[in-house]
Amino acid sequence: MQTYVISVPCVEATPESGGKGAPLAGAADAYLAAGLLDQIRDLGIEVAGNVRPLLAGDRISGDPVCNLGRYNALVGEAVAGAIANGARPLLAGGTCSHLIGMLAGMQTALNSVERIGLVWFDAHGDFNTPCTSPSGMLGGMPVAVAAGLCHWEWREKAGMAAPIPTNRIVMVDVRNLDPREAEMIDSTDVTVAKFGPKGEVDPVAIAIQRLAERVDHLYLHVDADVLDASLQPNHPTAEPNGPDLKAVLAALRATMATGKVRAFGVVSVNPTGPDGPLAMEMGTRMILGGLADWNELNP
User: Fold this and answer.
1) Pair 228, 191: CB distance under 8 Å
2) Cα–Cα distance between 60 and 240 in angstroms, integer?
3) What per-residue confidence (pLDDT) applies to 14?
4) Which residues are CB-neighbours of 219 under 8 A, at least 6 positions away?
5) Vertex 128, ends 64 and 133: CA angle to 5°?
6) b/e burial code for range 244-280 (CB count within 10 A of at least 16 → b)
């Protein structure tokens, strides 16, 4: 197996993106500095390449949605190139806002008539639109954008030709939804899968298997805040009462076991401050655990 690592050194579209999530921009470089590429090779997986997409200064506008579209186009180019060359794209770093680029690249590289599904591990749905969001934060909208519900220019500038139908989306956990966001999800065909009260994985695995039977390819996306807040204490949107690492790794393995995963991402890790080492350890273990299962179950 070959993987191609996409190391996103920004939060949404530019390194200057501010706000409480700004420290997430450092995760990609922190992974590389800690030897992630060698750790991947130690699994017996070839690293076909590593790219650090940056949006040129003359392409940064005053419109953050336009910037997101342009930046995600760079991510999409990396994904499409990796798949075309027989490698499996890994997004290491960045945030949920880079979902669109991952899907755009898959659409570009894969046959246009084939069906792409999304498995979304997150404490949040990121299914808000400008009409439902209490904050207006773009980082809370990427799944709605992917589904064609808002900010078409973000999707189209990224090269994502068609939205993902909501019946091809499985959200795992999403234990904290805004009220109007929850109503939006309930009004669609999105499937929400929950871990059992003791971290049982079967309900999640069953939902993912059913999705896999309806699609040709999957993008497996993991926001580190799907883990309990005790394991991501410095995450800007950490949430209590979440699954532990063992449960999440088991669910990732179940997803890889479908044989449909074509790209994989672990995002939104904060490497800074006293809790940075713990956050990095959890992110690294999810990346390496997912890759090991991908290699074992889909050689």
Assistant:
1) no
2) 37
3) 85
4) 99, 102, 103, 106, 116, 117, 118, 119, 261, 262, 263, 264, 265
5) 80
6) eeebbbbbbbbbbbbebbbbbbbbbbbbbeebbeebb
Mean pLDDT, the chain, whole residue set? 96
Task: Decide: 82 and 1 in contact? Cβ < 8 Å.
Answer: no
Give the span between the Cα atoms of 196 and 203, in whole angstroms. 7
- Dihedral (Cα; 145, 31, 119, 147), 10-degree rounding: 10
Distance CA 124, CA 39 (A): 30
Q: Say what the pLDDT of residue 102 is.
A: 98
> Pairing state of beta strands 88-92 and 2-6?
parallel
What are the tens digits of pLDDT across the range 135-167? 889 999 999 999 999 999 999 999 999 999 999
Asked if residue 112 has pLDDT above 90, the reply is no
Q: pTM of the full predicted structure? A: 0.98
Residues 6 or more apart whose Cβ sits within 8 Å of residue 180? 128, 132, 134
Which distant-in-sequence residues (6+ apart) come within 8 Å of 38 by Cβ? none
Residue that has been written with the tokens 């991947």 in this structure? 40
Phi-psi region of 60 (alpha: psi -120 to 50; beta: other; left: phi over 0): beta
Classified as helix, coil or strand, 7 is coil
In the chain the domains, ranked by start, together with CATH numbers, are: 2-297 (3.40.800.10)
* Torsion angle (degrees, nearest 10) of CA 107, 287, 250, 297: 60
> Which one-letter amino acid corresponds to residue 257?
A
**Spatial CB neighbours of 52, under 8 Å, sequence gap ≥ 6:** 7, 8, 9, 28
- Supply 51's token pair: 């790219």
Please write the tens of the pLDDT for every residue from 238-255. Answer: 999 999 999 999 999 999
